[in-house]
Amino acid sequence: MAEAATRELPPVSPGLPLPEELVVWEILVRLPPKPLLRCRLVCRAWRRLTSTRDFLLAHHRHQPSLPLIAACEYDDIMYLIDVLTLTLGRRTGVAARLHPVARYASTADYLDSSRDGLLLISWNTGPPQYSICNPTTRQFGDLPLISGFMFLGLYQHRHTGDYRILLCRAEKPVLEDVIPGHVERDACYVYTLGSNDIMPRRIGWAEPEVSVLGRRSRQAQLHGSLLHWYHRIKHMILVFDTMAESFRWMRAPNKTDNELNWERRADLFEMDSTLGLYCCNHGKTIVNIWALQDHEQEVWSIKYKVKLPVTCIRGELDMGDFWRVTVSSEDGVEVVLLECGQSVLCIDTDGKLLACLEHNGNDITVTPMKLKQSLVPHAFFPLLEGYLRRQPVSGLVTHFTPLAAAATMAAAAATGLPPPLSSGVALPEVLVVWDILVRLPPKPLLRCRLVCRAWRRLTSTRDFLLAHHRHQPSLPVFTGCRNCDVLTVDRRRRLLHPVARFDSSVFCVEEASCDGILVLWRKRAIGAHSGVRFSICNPTTRQSGDIPLPLLTGFMLMGLYRHRPTGEYRLLLYRIELPASERLVDVLIPGDRNACYVYTLGSGDLPRCIGWPEAEANGASVLLHGSLHWYKRIEDMILAFDITAESFRWMRSPFGKAVWRAFHGLFEINCMLGMYCCDDGATFVDIWVLEDYEREVWSLKYRVELPVLEIRRELDVKRDLYSVMVSSEDGDVLVLVNCKRAMLYIGTDGKLLASLPHDNDGLSITPVKLRASLVPHAFFPSLLDYVVNASPFSDQLCQNLKEDKAALTGDVYCLDERRESAVVAEMPRCFWFLDSPPSSKTTFLALRVFAA
After folding, report:
1. What is the dihedral of CA 843, 845, 851, 852, to 10 degrees?
2. Sign of the dihedral through C-alpha 73, 74, 75, 77
3. Which residues lie below 8 Å from residue 568, measured CB to CB, with a gap of 6+?
4. Which among 52-66, 92-106, 173-187, 575-589 has the top mean pLDDT?
5. Contact 627/617 with Cβ under 8 angstroms?
6. Helix (H, G, I), strand (E, B) or coil at 588
7. How far apart are CA 408 and CA 419, in angstroms?
8. Which of 220, 411, 436, 457 is an S-S bond match for 153, by CB 3.0 to 4.6 Å?
9. Pairing mode, if any, of strands 627-632 and 622-624?
10. Cβ contact 559:598 at 8 Å
11. CATH number assigned to the domain covering 65-406
């Protein structure tokens, strides 16, 4: 799979999902490692796509190359060495910062090389001993076969993909006891990581100048497939061809004798995809920077002559002239770095002081190396001696910082800004938030809030939550009689999702739904009329409460709606005539019987009478065009209630009274009112659509011939043991056929599309549909017995979500109550979505750290 940056991506149409290529190859590929790993928790598709080797290689190419700094620190009685990266933040407007990458014990002597996210470390144990690690994936291993050799460079051999180490054996008697015989002195060797070789392979080149390059003051710079070293004495550059494994010399920039005499420090560095060389005079007042314009012709040109602000430097460091000069670059911008004691000064090419950074330790050393983080797996690590992952041996590596996202993520975490895209042109924030995050299901969206504070802040506004709710699918709701479950169904994945579970002694019916809120009519299996109550719940936020008795005693629920002028949520009720034995409660609420009432949730007021005694209707309503709609079979008319004016009117139905209809009902289809009816023999279903709402013009859209024989074979039942209903999902019209063991999906062409088995005896289809919502509502705390994350939303429901267990195997996704308010400030405590109950040792988030 090629990187999407090289492709011509399709245009994005308003209201349509973004192409998968755009999300993965233009957004996720640019995130720092830590946010990327957190994004894998969003859904299985993102985890699968971001775990391929092609993606990880592209992700590595988009990471910034950041200067590496080594610093010593005392921790109680232990002498530690910190590995840090430096970001200037000039492009992102973030202040310069030092970021920890890894920490080593006192025996760690030096960072020898950095290549493709790998760090090569030497240990101060007499003759040189080496280890290699990837601080991003936290893998570590020793390299005993090259102990005693002098290190020259680390590179990847393009033909084989192997990582190889270039070594030399110097003329030193101390090495005789370390290196076995048959190893020539003053010769170069190559060792392949993960190979079965018992010794490095000799490649020759016995010139004495090579041993000088093994000193730690000379670091190899990789340009193309060539390693380069600057030989200060010869004023030449030694080049090693990693493909042919041969050396040659090339010219350095032309300098006068006077320039060579006053040269105090000089070295190569990588600058803007080419090779650069800098030198500083003895007085440490001027730094010259050259760029290699033509590698083949060996043409150099001076790019900058930086006059250091000596007075300002002395004022910042207060240590005289005891500082060391290094030149590095970030995002194509060259900077001069001055190290002294615990401080690092950053100076631009104009000679202006950019920043003064301090580390709480001693002896900061700015290395000529740069770190580009990588999650790419390497096969050689498990083959190394002492291979460790995540938990290094205490005698070697004290600890790794948990995936320090070098520079960009740390700066974002400190400032609250969104993490900047590391390469290329940043995608607009409006595209990421309003075209991608707004389309995610609630649980993945909540997990995306853990990626960074900016995403959490932007996705917690009311405007965003309302837009997110509008993008959610409207799913049919089902009731399971055996366990008193309320469920929704995912047709595409053929899964039932538990929404709520009630005690087996409670009989529950879904009465109405609006904006993610469910109204449930609950009655004790054994008991009088006083055992009836209405419950209001939001299954997404797991909030629930009851309407106080006796406010609704003697009322029948007709619908739930949001009153647009006030924003209040109101219940439309019909007051029925109570028996004489129950009229003591009835007198508490004044008003006519056999009339319609309106009750405002959270108001504390009594239901308000609005009249209309002839408007009695039960069953689920359809909210469309600002009105609630019911089909009244006896009148063969549709009753409509204007939710703004709070008045009723009658509308024509598409068929006459003479037609016998076993199953019938209203539903919504593409913002239009639809109606279906099924004949008594359950052999066909007519589906009508209200084409002109104002003129009440209906048209027959489909006549679906049901595959009766196939239905009976699939369900293994007779005709009178299954029910038929029509629903609309994502613009598709579907006929649902349900019995006690399975549910069938039938298309408008009469073909069986899918069969969804279920083990819930008595699973019944309701006309209620649920559209998930994270929008907070102020009326919930005022309800009777208000609860969050409690019955009927038990943790057992989350444990029953088998698809989430399969998607998130091995990870823990729960919130630590002790850190919840600080880390997820905008997230109510009802958003737990536990896969397992929390324990006293529950952590905030456990990430799958390793990709492969």
Report:
1. 40
2. positive
3. 562, 600, 601, 602, 603
4. 52-66
5. no
6. coil
7. 6
8. 220
9. antiparallel
10. no
11. 2.120.10.30
H helices within 779-833, ranges in order?
795-799, 802-807, 820-823
- Predicted confidence (pLDDT) at residue 632 exceeds the cutoff of 80: yes
Q: Does residue 130 carry a pLDDT above 60?
A: yes
Q: What global pTM score does this model have?
A: 0.55
DSSP H or E segment with residue 637: strand 637-642
- Calpha distance 337→320 (Å, rounded): 17
Q: How many CA atoms lie within 13 A of 777 on its CB side?
A: 32
Distance CA(317)–CA(338), nearest Å, equals: 10
- Cα R_g (the chain), whole angstroms: 36
The encoded tokens of residue 283 equal 């007085």
DSSP string spanning 544-591?
EEEPPTTTTTTEEEEEEEEETTTTEEEEEEEEPPPPGGGHHHHTTS-S
Q: How many residues does the chain have?
A: 852
Residue 812, pLDDT above cutoff 60: no
DSSP per-residue letters across 5-37: GGS-PPPPPTTSPPPHHHHHHHTGGGS-HHHHH
User: Hey, what amino acid is at 549?
Assistant: L
* pLDDT greater than 80 at residue 165: yes
Burial of 832 per CB tally in 10 Å (0-12, 13-18, 19+): buried
Q: Which DSSP letter does residue 579 get?
A: P
Dist. CA 677–CA 572, nearest whole Å = 26
pLDDT at residue 756 tops 70: yes
CA–CA dist 157, 243 (Å, integer): 6
Rounded distance between C-alpha atoms, residue 277 and residue 246, angstroms:
23
Report the distance separating Cα 674 and Cα 700, nearest Å. 10
Q: Where are the beta strands (DSSP E) in 193-262?
A: 201-204, 221-223, 226-231, 236-241, 246-251
Structural tokens at position 622: 């359809």
Q: Which helix (H) or strand (E) holds 191?
A: strand 187-192
Dist. CA 715–CA 736, nearest whole Å = 13
Order of all β-strands in the sheet with 622-624: 622-624, 627-632, 637-642, 647-652
**Please, are residues 668 and 728 in contact by the beta-carbon 8 Å criterion?**
yes
Q: Give the distance, in angstroms, between the CA of residue 43 and the centroid of all CA atoms in the same chain.
A: 8
510: enclosing H helix or E strand: strand 506-514
Which tokens sit at 10?
Answer: 């399709």
Q: Let me know: does 638 contact 658? Beta carbons within 8 Å.
A: no
Cβ atoms 317, 343 nearer than 8 A? yes
b/e map 123-161, b = 16+ CB within 10 Å = beeeebbbbbbbbbbbbbbbbebbbbbbbbbbbbeeeee
Q: Which amino acid is at 763?
A: L
Cβ atoms 314, 322 nearer than 8 A: no
Q: What distance in Å separates the CA atoms of residue 229 and residue 368, rounded to the nearest whole number?
A: 12
Residue 562 burial (10 A CB sphere; 0-12, 13-18, 19+): middle
Judge contact between 562 and 568, C-beta under 8 A. Answer: yes
Distance of CA 179 to the CA centre of its chain: 49
Residue intervals of the chain classified under CATH 2.120.10.30 are 65-406
Cα–Cα dist 453/412, whole Å: 8
Contact by Cβ (8 Å): 574, 596: yes
Q: Are residues 148 and 175 in contact, defined by beta-carbon separation less than 8 angstroms?
A: yes
Looking at the chain, the number of H-run helices and the number of E-run strands are: 17, 51
pLDDT of 149 over the 90 cut: no
| Residues 6 or more apart whose Cβ sits within 8 Å of residue 14 | none
Q: Model confidence over 402-460: pLDDT tens digits?
A: 333 333 333 343 344 444 444 444 456 777 788 788 888 888 888 888 877 888 888 99
Answer yes or no: are the C-beta atoms of 5 and 25 closer than 8 Å: yes
The architecture of the domain spanning 476-488+549-771 is 6 Propeller (2.120)
pLDDT tens digits, residue range 333-365? Answer: 888 888 887 788 888 888 888 888 877 766 778
Instruction: Answer whether 743's CB lies under 8 Å from 763's CB.
Output: yes
Peptide bond into 441 cis (omega under 30): no
3-state secondary structure of 442: helix
